[in-house]
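ok so i was messing around last nite and threw this chain in just to see what happens. nothing serious, just curious
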Amino acid sequence: MARIAGVNIPTGKRVPIALTYIHGIGPKAAETICNAVGIDLTRRINELSDAEILSIREHIDANFTVEGDLRREVQMNIKSMMDIGSYRGLRHRRNLPVRGQRTHTNARTRKGPAKAIAGKKK
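result:
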């Protein structure tokens, strides 16, 4: 089993699909990595040599922010928005939707289960 950026990559999948298991690498970035390293998109992880896996690993380390570093960076960005008191930071602080969604009827994922309001009968 190949290990890249601290993630066990599934061996039976094609290389671009397997690379998307790494947090911070999507389909387009995975394709770009394969082209930059010179690996055919139809090859599978178990067909790669150790040298090819090493070249993928080095390319990702040099050009991408992935996994723990990316998660930490995103959390720091959210924390800085909360600290400066921007609108998005306030929405994060109140645990409400950040990107302009309605909250009158929906947003149950973000707000949690509905709470009953006493004396609200018709």
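not much to say yet. The chain has a mean pLDDT of 92.
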